[in-house]
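User: Before I run my own analysis I want an independent prediction to cross-check against. Here's the chain; please return only the structure tokens and, at the end, one sentence I can use as a sanity check.
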Amino acid sequence: MNRLLTAVLALGLMAAPGLSRDAVAPLKVLVWDEQQEAQKSVYPNYLGNWIAEHLNKQEGIQTKSVGLKDPDQGLTDENIEWADVVIWWGHQKHALVADAPVAKIVDRVKAGKCGLIVLHSGHYSKIFRAAMYERFKQDVLAKLPATVDKSKVDFIKKKLGKPEVVSEEDKEHVITVIAPDCGLGGVRADGAPGHLETKLPDHPIAKGVPAKFDVAKTEMYNELFTVPEPDANVFFETWDKGEQFRSGNCWALGEGRVFYFRPGHETYPVFHQEETLKIVHNAVLWSGKRT
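Assistant: Structure tokens:
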């Protein structure tokens, strides 16, 4: 009798006015990890699997963990189209990732069908660079006069670096740009603690996260971070030697959402911390448009 009542209530909930089936369906998260053997010193079954297993324990989330060793690098059409959110971790093997599935994921983000979360050294990944280039072009187009047919604007990528417009030819609507290389002002892999401050405590990704906390052992990244200006810098990080970095950033990309979270290095126990796992969970809900 209890089972029947539960089923009836569930059907009634999904049929309720203004509440679609999607609103109560699990949020499907594809976790992509290049799966370095070095990860096993801290994450015995790889870092991506560790994150996926944690998320799978959270209410309303379903995960798949894939990587380079899987058929089609884990980026089959079926997996891509299944995902409401993609989490990406890469470090040494960015160049080995195929271009076509990366482009497909970015197109899905732009269409509002998928969110994207990029962790730590994934800032140099093909998928993050592609997403940031699309966001940069979006920013440039937004500044053009309303009289310009934006669908006919052509972009020419001169090189990678700090994103900027090099030249603009009004007659042909051709814009030459330096595309974002998502580069850094400095790196230090000595495992010194990073001190994080929650800059936007009311942002959904900051829910339940302390105003200040330390990542006990992490790699250091220093500014300048050559990406388009974020819509929101949720977390800011500093180190005792004076370095600083915008360590949790949000961008709208078309109809979708992108979040980058900096702390990491695959041989440090960054994602054994309650705070970092909470941020990833919150980011999944935000990028999947549940918050």
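Sanity check: The chain is about 25% helix and 30% strand.
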